Amino acid sequence: MAVRKSHGHVVIIGGGGTGAAILHDLLLRGFTATLVERGELTSGTTGRHHGQLHSGARYAVGDREIARECMDEVRILQRIAPEAIEMNWGLFVALNEEDNAFAPEFIAACQESGIPATEVPVAQALQMEPQLNPAILRAVKVPDGTIDAWRLPLHFFATARANGGMIKTFTEVVGVIRTAGRVTGVRVLDHAAQNEYDIAADLVVSATGAWAGQIAALAGIALPVTPAPGTMVAVKKRLNNMVISQLHPAGDGDIVVPQRGLSIIGSTQWQTDDPDTVEVPAEDITYLTARAAQLIPAFASTPFHAAWTACRPLAGSSGSVEDGRKLSRDFLAIDHGTTDNTPGLISIIGGKATVLRAMGEQTVDMICHLFGISEGCVTATTPLMSHRGYYNPALAGERAPTGGAL
């Protein structure tokens, strides 16, 4: 069999879910690629989110397009990576009359977005989730679920490596190489060997999330991204099997996500200049515990497990927390050759874990356009290798079982 000629070599910065999806997609479309991550895989935002698989219901009232995209990606992930998904559905519940009044608009928006939202009687909701606040006024069932934040990217990484992708962990980008105004590679520090070296590239992609502004700065570019940390609190019991959300516009502490034997309430939101120096505010733990107890009263008396922060990479800049909440949760791929006269560099910011595959597709579509080639994306229909194959070479040929979509 003839060896397929590569379209070019792409360096991806960032070993989270977005970087994993881009790496996987590039290899399927005939590129060679190297991914570098300054720590362990998923050690940034990807490994810190609460793991909700968003049906899009949370966004439906404000943005039908994002909601539809989430629902589409839920169906795709069910097919290509079912081992990383717990399709346990979700309940949006009304705690007060204001929530109750919001319900008709919420249900209509979901249905217009292709999300099968159905109202269930309160008595039935309490049977489905016995720990729910018995004073709830209304309940709406939606196809939310949970993501294993480690397994899902490993599906992509395992498949990409089996297809020839190079993955370098504990390898930090310390410089961006430019030749005649074009980005032609990166300078990296290998933290294990404590030496620096260059990696040449035909194109570099920054998939660094909240750190995207720092990478862009290495190339002399001011990138409008708002690092927005949020706190999450987990207790040592699985109090709910469905994702429980308050039936109102998105706010602080209004989602309780079941993860294995834990229950996680998330999240708050504020802004920072440096995502590496973020610490958990003590008042957030108290606040989130009280908010969780409004949805699930037993949360307050369940032993504390942990509190941590995840830094969202919101696309755009804002001067206040309230303005930050208005920034889109959509994602954006930026060709710096067009926006900043610096060809050879792309940044991807924004987005959510649920849409990692779509973020990869849009980014690689842009790369194909820049290279002047026509290669269609097949990641939506290509089953991923088992996550176990990443660390166990004996399982390198094992595919994850395919799942049925909603």
End-to-end separation: 39 Å
CATH class: Alpha Beta
| Rg, Å, rounded | 21 Å
What structural class results from the helix and strand content?
Answer: alpha+beta
CATH topology: FAD/NAD(P)-binding domain
Strand-and-helix sequence, N→C? EHEEHEEHEHEEHEEEEEHEEEEHEHEHEH
The stretches of 5 or more residues where confidence is low (pLDDT under 50) are 317-329
Could you tell me the number of beta strands?
20
- The dominant shape is globular
Q: Which architecture per CATH?
A: 3-Layer(bba) Sandwich
Describe the structure.
The protein has 406 residues and is of the alpha+beta class. The chain is built from 10 helices and 20 strands. The chain has helices at residues 17-28, 64-80, 97-112, 122-128, 151-162, 212-218, 282-295, 321-326, 336-339, 356-371; strands at residues 9-13, 32-36, 52-53, 85-86, 90-94, 118-120, 138-142, 145-147, 166-168, 171-179, 182-190, 195-200, 203-206, 225-235, 243-246, 255-259, 262-266, 304-315, 331-335, 345-350. The strands form 4 sheets. The protein has an 8-stranded mixed sheet with strand order 6-7-5-15-16-17-14-18. A 6-stranded mixed sheet has the order 9-2-1-13-20-19, with helices on both faces. Strands 3-8-4 form a 3-stranded antiparallel sheet, covered by helices on one side. A hairpin with a 2-residue loop joins β10 (171-179) and β11. α1 packs parallel to α5. The chain is globular, with a radius of gyration of 21 Å. The chain starts with 8 loop residues before the first strand and ends in a 35-residue tail after the last helix.
